[in-house]
TrEMBL record:
This is Nickel-dependent lactate racemase. Residues 11-205 form the LarA-like N-terminal domain. GO terms for molecular function: lactate racemase activity. Residues 281-421 form the Lactate racemase C-terminal domain. Pfam families: Lar_N, LarA_C. Signal peptide: none annotated. It comes from Megasphaera paucivorans.
Length: 433
């Protein structure tokens, strides 16, 4: 039996394990895509847009322009590096700073601190442009009726009243909306609490006890009711333009897309898929899924992005070995405090009554732990908290592999298969055609 050594990042350190080469199906890594000149790429996407006239032709002097900008939970999109170029382009079109405002797409998140405004927009933009924090419970939200599936539409008044709206974010794979960005800037971004709750509950199956809606999963857009609902809400506002970033595996901007709010976003999702899609021969009995070390594994919530590609790559009833240090295991409390239920049904009922993203992410992991054996390599001081999630905690990758081998022997699986992802947050495993 020939052995092959693999190295996994965990926190600021690394762990190694030797695995039998004849059992390894695929070793999946994200594609290397070069960074772009951010200023040049941003200006180019506004002047040579997708399915749209250039931004300067989409606005007219005298227009009030509202930039709906993703909040501080999305600073990975690096909007602080390109937002100023959008504003400068509006100035060139005859729109002064005084006719421009920013509304942060906070959904049901809290308001920013002044420091967080700077992290999202940059210091110069914060000095020049008036800004509004979206409050999903604001009494001035505008009632725009209902969507086809009955979601009541309450939208931020600053957005509804603006002559022109531009949406600004980045695009990445999303747990239940298929992809982030685009229409999500409106719903949930600047929507009311009831609007958000009704929309997000479509991430659960129609009937209680059926768990997560299989139509609302990462990369899925077609027939995704949650996505369709978001698109309908965004169409009510009909933003005149979109500017979004796309990020490579190194965390750098590798492309900017601009233009029509739907077509440019859709093109961006295809680019994200092209970058992150990695073919695999098969789903396997064992999957190694590593977040890639600090800061990607700073908490269980942050590192939870490990579980989606792992779920795509493992057989039903298989073994997932997740690897994350989670030095801030208690953060955020809204996530870790969600693991207080004995059964999936109890947890699902509570989630339907009060849907939040951290609660859903916790429920998604709880479901995975009931379908598969999930072993988590983490700090020993985390073990008690980890057991509440349904995972089996261990301190080393070697220990996890020994435990997995024991389970494979119990199942009499001598011909087991292994998939490996050393940086799984940058990978979307896809069965080869």
């Amino acid at each position: 039996m020939s052995l092959r050594e693999f190295t996994f990042g965990i926190g600021d350190t690394f762990q190694k394990v030797c695995l039998p080469e004849e059992h390894i199906s695929d070793v999946m890594e994200g594609k290397s895509v070069p960074a772009v000149d951010i200023k040049k790429a941003t200006i180019d996407c506004m002047r040579n847009p997708i399915s749209s006239d250039p931004l300067q032709k989409k606005v007219t002097p005298g227009d009030s322009v509202c930039l709906v900008v993703a909040d501080c939970t999305r600073i990975w999109n690096q909007s602080n590096k390109f937002l100023v170029y959008i504003i400068n382009e509006l100035n060139l079109a005859g729109i002064p700073d005084t006719d421009i405002c920013i509304v942060f797409a906070q959904g049901s998140h809290r308001a920013h601190t002044p420091e967080e405004n700077i992290k999202v927009c940059g210091e110069e933009v914060c000095r020049r442009i008036k800004m509004y924090q979206h409050d999903c419970n604001d009494t001035t939200l505008v009632d725009l009726g209902k969507t086809k599936i009955g979601t009541p539409l309450f939208i931020n008044k600053h957005v509804v009243d603006a002559d022109k709206v531009i949406i600004v974010d980045g695009i990445t794979v999303h747990l239940f909306a298929g992809y982030g960005g685009g229409r999500k800037l409106i719903l949930p971004g600047v929507s009311g609490y009831k609007t958000i709750q009704c929309n997000h509950c479509h991430a659960l199956a129609p009937q209680i006890g059926e768990g997560v809606n299989p139509l609302t999963r990462p990369t899925l857009l077609d027939h995704n009711p949650l996505n369709d609902d978001m698109i309908e809400a965004c169409a009510k506002i009909n933003p005149c333009f979109l500017v979004h970033s796309i990020i490579n595996a190194e965390g750098e901007i590798c492309r900017m897309v601009g233009g029509d709010w739907y077509d440019a976003w859709l093109e961006g999702t295809k680019e994200v898929h092209r970058i992150q899609q990695v073919p695999m021969k098969q789903k396997t009995d064992v999957v190694f899924a590593c977040a890639g070390g600090y800061p990607k594994d700073v908490s269980l919530y942050q590192g939870s992005k490990c579980y989606d590609p792992a779920e795509m790559a493992v057989k039903d009833g298989g073994i997932v070995i997740a690897i994350m240090e989670a030095r801030d295991i208690k953060e955020p409390p809204a996530y870790m405090d969600s693991f207080c239920f004995d059964t999936m049904e109890e947890m699902e009922k509570a989630l339907r009554a009060e849907f939040t993203i951290p609660f859903f992410v916790a429920y998604n992991l709880f479901c995975l732990c009931h379908r598969c054996t999930v072993i988590l390599v983490t700090r020993p001081e985390n073990f008690e908290d980890i057991r509440r999630t349904g995972q089996i905690p261990v301190a080393t990758v070697k220990e996890a592999w020994l435990l997995a081998q024991k389970k494979l022997e119990e199942q009499k699986k001598n011909d087991y298969t292994i998939n490996i992802m050393t940086h799984c947050t940058t990978v979307v495993p896809t069965l080869a055609q």
